[in-house]
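During the second half of the funding period, the structural biology subgroup turned its attention to how the target accommodates small molecules. The most pressing case was fe (ii) ion, which had performed well in the primary screen but for which no bound structure existed. We therefore specified the complex as follows and requested a full 3D prediction, including the ligand pose.
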Amino acid sequence: MAIIKDVLYVRFRVTDLQAQQRFLDDFGFQTSIDDGLLLARGTDGSPYIYLAEESSEPAFVSVGFAAESEAALKEVAAIDSVPIESNTLPGGGLIARLTDPNGFAVEVVANIADRPLLTEAVRSDFNDGVEKHRLGERVAFAAPECLIKRLGHVVLMVNDFSETFEWYQRRLGLLISDEIVMDKDGQEQTLGAFTRCNRGEEYVDHHTMFFINAGHSDFNHAAFEVGNWDVLMQSHYALKKAGHQHSFGVGKHILGSQTFDYWKDPNGFMLEHFTDGDLFNESFGPHKRSPADLLGTHWGPEGMPGQ
Ligand SMILES: [Fe+2]
């Protein structure tokens, strides 16, 4: 039985809520501030996929996952004997608050009432060199209500990969897609792994969580899916024009295949736009890949974002 549907939101403390809202608007969210809480959503139905409160100490606060059902939430909460509380945020529902071995707050929610979907970015067909799909018409773009669709994945630096993955696997049922390994003095060392939700035959993103075996714990980035390639590039130039800090990209990863573009928010937290990622279901087994695969790209800059 699937335990979680997907990662749902990330929550932060930021030094200037108004400046953060301007950045998030430029980044492509639909935002609102309610009683000191900044909420941002995409075109999918979740009332929020990003949350922030103002504080003199900027921080990554938590990552939230959507449980498959109330029964699944109860099973997760029972493992650590944590209470299931009512969620006071828009959309209501139930929430269980956990803490992972690194001290990260992990929230699991169920029964949040979705909002009506917003209109998505759509465009007419592509004409590439091999196949022409748009004949006798000009390219047309329908303006969406917001550019971002959903939260796709979160990347965390962790103290100990094995301990961290066991914790998430037991509670959330995550599967390994690609484990990054290298040889050190004849011993195999794990540098981290891309992990995904297990929804049986249903196809899910190549990675929902990427844990980097760093020997310390920190937030690395959160990645939001945008409608298509044109939206990604449109946002790239709009963010540049607005004077925001670019981090890495545009490029196309080898592992996961996402076309990526990384930005820094006003407090330096890294947020990514991505599109065209790989999807796998339960039949895709775990693979071992090299650091070169991790750092390499099909095209675009190579290396790790944010360095
Ligand atoms: Fe990413």
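Two results from this model are relevant to the next phase. The helical segments are 17-27, 70-79, 161-172, 229-241, 291-295. The chain has one domain: 4-114+146-299.
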